[in-house]
Amino acid sequence: MIFALLVSVALGLVAEPHFAQVPLTEATVSFATFKAHFEKDYGSLHEEAHRRKIYLDNVDTIIAHNEKKLGWTMAVNEFADMHPDEFFNTYLNNTFRHRQENVQHLETSGTPDSVDWVSSGAVTDVKNQGSCGSCWAFSTTGSVEGAWKIKHGELVSLSEEELVQCDRGQDSGCQGGLMDYAFQFIEKHGITSESNYPYTSGSGVRGSCNSAKENQPVATVSGYKDVTQNQADQLKAALALGPVSVAVEADKSAWQFYSGGIMNKESCGTKLDHGVLAVGFDSTAGYFKVKNSWGTSWGEAGYIRLADTSRNSAGICGILSSASYPIAGDKPGPGPSPGPTPTPGPGTSEHYGDPKNGCPDGDASIQIQGISGDFCSPKCVLGFICPGTPADLEGTPQCALQDQSGDKYCALMCSGDGASCGNAGDTCKSIQGTGICTWDD
Questions:
Q1: What is the longest distance spanned by two Cα atoms in the chain?
Q2: Which residue among 132, 135, 317, 421 is the active-site one?
Q3: What are the tens digits of pLDDT across the range 104-137?
């Protein structure tokens, strides 16, 4: 499909409003537009008025943060009509109180300067836990998926639903759980694939365990290790081995509305209430790369970068407080053999990625008249908001394209011809004085 460049936008003559650059008021993004875009239906005028007030309060918070220019941004997303307390009760839990029992102190002298298990193909697509406090299950499957891929060469998307419905020892489904307890469950039972036992608890209803599906494991673990607390070099050494399950505090607006950049302030706190997956680090740039389970419309296409240094020994958002990783076991006996799941990363399925590897749902495979190459282009949210730049790419996301129907799409803007866009196959092309990143096939 051929898309035209919005010259007025790209050349800055009539700039589209950008959330991080202009004051956001109800006049620029009305509550009605937000409601329509995210298909919100509140059921009564009283409830709608209540949500509208929360929305405007949250918008004020986002504006105030972005005006500080701290190096990381916030933006309106589907959570913008939720009060922080409600957000906590829906998506988070306070069950991350656990005494480490299997601490493995690692040698750090051989730790590389950077690791990215996404680009190495050991991380499945970003998932979405929905309105269920099952983050612990998604963190668990993520680290097991990575360990299994590294040991056996097979990337299989594993079943969070089996953990939510069947792990009833010390974990509590949508009411919370702990990754170490989930590792213990998998050590005893194994775990089946997501395709065999798909996730259905997104509405917040746990349901009953399907024992037939539970008894069809495709992956096992032989144990797990806890990472030495409050030491960034120990978490990096663990990440050199594979993805690591970590707990953070995510109940503040810093997480609720994070949209991009390296979060380098302690404003998110260290009271652990959310399980996520550390998938890499970059010591030169100074961050840990973390996969969340709130879908790809949140953060940097579902990821967040947390600074690897902090005034607090627990690290930014407490990331150094409670980390652990599984030890992949042997292959189970004959059973279902699901195929590998496509993964995001350089040259793979992600916003602004290479279409030859497939584009995320909702993205268009775009070729621009007048320049070579193509890329996966996400649709502009609310007409002007773009998903953040994935951590493995470079460029400034901007609503700069429009198809024949008038729909607007995002591109990564760059400095000029030949400049790197963060990957050897992705380079900057100049058109009408404006640089756009495209993949050179």
A1: 64
A2: 135
A3: 889 999 999 999 999 999 999 999 999 999 999 9
Res 384: pLDDT:
63
Q: Is 102 a catalytic residue?
A: no
CA-to-CA distance for 248 and 73, rounded, in angstroms? Answer: 19
Task: Kindly name the residue from 274, 399, 414, 437 that is annotated as catalytic.
Answer: 274
| Residue closest to 291 by CA, chosen among 145, 398, 409, 399 | 145
pTM of the shown model:
0.72
Residue 380 designated active-site: no
Assess whether 292 carries a catalytic annotation.
yes
For the chain, list residues with pLDDT below 50. Answer: 1-2, 7-28, 335-347
Instruction: Name the CATH superfamily for 95-328.
Output: Cysteine proteinases (3.90.70.10)
What's the rounded Cα separation, in Å, for the pair 326 and 225? Answer: 6
| Active-site pick, 58, 264, 292, 423 | 292
The domain locations on the chain are 95-328
pLDDT at 183: 96
Indicate the burial class of 105 (C-beta count within 10 angstroms; 0-12, 13-18, 19 or more): exposed
